[in-house]
């Protein structure tokens, strides 16, 4: 694994990000990717040897825009990010399962989670790269892809808001049982990343922990071109 990415991930303030995930269901990671890395990943959108499929979002009524799923073996940088971030999130995931009295526990290393996916017939890689132009958007959704799913995912911003595009905010909606939903709207800088809840998280109420579920999407891009990298940890059916 590349020392620089692993080191960089180790040096993040994980107690701060853990607190943010526990309190809000998301955390913004500062300056994860360099401008050069963002540029390289964004350019690789056009290299079709890297992908297993291309999705026209309009065709599936997912919104408007296009995305591509990477094939295995993933580009090194994606493998490194996925492997080095996973253990921090697995610890939080297990704490969440225990708070919600759910038996399930997640392994400490990504390889073991992927093994579980494979045993469940989920063998296709899920990291993806998304490209939106003026007028494009992404409907609110969840990325579960099968019985085995990890409660966190990450989206990396490869283009710069107000420079490369306007609009195109990352939108999250938290469904609170018997209450109105909470909207969250973020527009991080290029190189930053947002970790968020894939499905649900524990919230402490008067009678103990209850679940709130989260969906995410992207508001309409008003101008320009917006390219993001999504890292989902479980494989798909
Ligand atoms: O384009 C975005 O910011 C969101 C992409 C997305 O839905 C994902 O990464 O799962
Ligand atoms: Fe998504």
Automatic annotation (TrEMBL):
The keyword Iron applies. Pfam families: Oxygenase-NA. InterPro entries: DUF2086 (IPR018655), Oxoglu/Fe-dep_dioxygenase_dom (IPR005123). Keywords: Iron, Metal-binding, Oxidoreductase. Belongs to the iron/ascorbate-dependent oxidoreductase family. GO terms for molecular function: metal ion binding; oxidoreductase activity. This is Prolyl 4-hydroxylase subunit alpha. Residues 123-236 form the Fe2OG dioxygenase domain.
């Amino acid at each position: 694994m590349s020392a620089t990415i692993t080191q960089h991930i180790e040096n993040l303030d994980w107690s701060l990000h853990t607190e943010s995930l526990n309190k809000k269901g998301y955390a913004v990671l500062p300056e994860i990717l360099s401008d050069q890395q963002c540029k390289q990943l964004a350019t690789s959108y056009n290299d079709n040897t890297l992908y297993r499929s291309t999705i026209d979002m309009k065709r599936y009524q997912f919104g408007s825009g296009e995305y591509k799923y990477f094939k295995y073996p993933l580009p090194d940088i994606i493998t490194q990010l996925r492997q080095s971030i996973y253990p921090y999130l697995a610890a939080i995931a297990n704490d969440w399962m225990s708070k919600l009295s759910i038996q399930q526990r997640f392994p400490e290393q990504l390889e073991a989670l992927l093994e579980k996916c494979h045993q469940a017939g989920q063998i296709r890689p899920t990291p993806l790269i998304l490209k939106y132009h003026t007028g494009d958007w992404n409907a609110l959704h969840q990325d579960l892809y099968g019985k085995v799913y990890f409660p966190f995912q990450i989206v990396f911003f490869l283009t710069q808001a107000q420079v490369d595009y306007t609009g195109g905010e990352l939108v999250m909606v938290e469904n609170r049982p018997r209450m109105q939903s909470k909207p969250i709207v973020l527009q991080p800088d290029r190189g930053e990343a947002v970790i968020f809840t894939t499905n649900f998280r524990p919230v402490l109420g008067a009678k103990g922990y209850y679940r709130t579920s989260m969906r995410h999407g992207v508001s309409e891009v008003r101008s320009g071109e917006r390219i993001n990298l999504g890292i989902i940890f479980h494989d798909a059916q």
